[in-house]
């Protein structure tokens, strides 16, 4: 009987103790829902829970993940969360130990800081990931030649920019390079840089798909392409000094009888009533059709007359006339003398190189946007885009800049923002070059930016910095 009483008492004690242990054990937290919100400044990730859990958090050394470890928490109901955000890629929940659950937040780019905290009513674990950043990387890539990459947050989103600064008085030359050395087809910037021994290269002019340059281009003192409208151009004098202005082209042909006929374009496809001047930069033939007349001119003398697709002999030009201009030149015959005159204006006629694009960004140290004045369409003038620019500082430093756009790591800039960026790097004069998928910077053979096409685009010409011969 005594033995039975002892067993009974022990059983009662065991039951009582087990009840005490059960009552003292913490309730298991359940992560019930995972959600997020985002702004230009931060991403907020929220874990809805039934009980607030214990946790620890750390940012990995590479700043590419935030790891949160929860203790005694059920995460089985949470799938991986993908985020459409330039900073955060995804949130994944895994079981690492029987009593430890891990949340891994994968980042697309380094962050400045994060804040992890809890809220009640309802119960939540919240992490705020701060996007604000402004990082610069600088590298001396040659004597007086500096490369800078800039990665910055803005209210609209992140910006990635790439700038090369060439100090004056160094053994480098800045000049345009024509794709394939002729107005035929297109070529990638990296290829042009390699072919011309360019230490730095960026895309330059607007262009047509057949390789024709849209706007002004002058190389080695010869006009390669004429503008159809007076737009901003960069001119380079023999001493390396840079000019910026809106430039018009004027060309004429004086006939044997003294009549003066206006040239309507240089190295462009001949259209109705045009008089186009073709030189050796255009390839070796004009590509014109039989509905006009091509006059081959060598040393100001008509040497041949052809109806369509004339050969352009070395050192010669071709005057190709259609419609009313064909009629005006119809009296010309082989052996006649003609006189050509081409001008960009007294000062600009002294330039060795010139590149037209536009609009103007900075003039005399003030923002000066000429989009409307130069009749640029909205796809160039309005909105954010990848962009390329060239400028000069007060003390003669030459700046080449490219900004990525239309991508998660960089949303692109407006023309105003591009002007302000050029001013930030010291430009007192600057102009916009071709942009969009064409925007590209090559330094020492390497593509430094991320073209928005996802690959290099073939373009009409490039602006390079190369060692002097």
UniProtKB/TrEMBL annotation:
Presence of keyword Methyltransferase: no
Limits of the AMIN domain: 35-112
Signal peptide: 1-23
Domain (Phosphodiester glycosidase) ranges: 310-465
Source species, domain of life: Bacteria
Keywords: Signal
Protein name: AMIN domain-containing protein
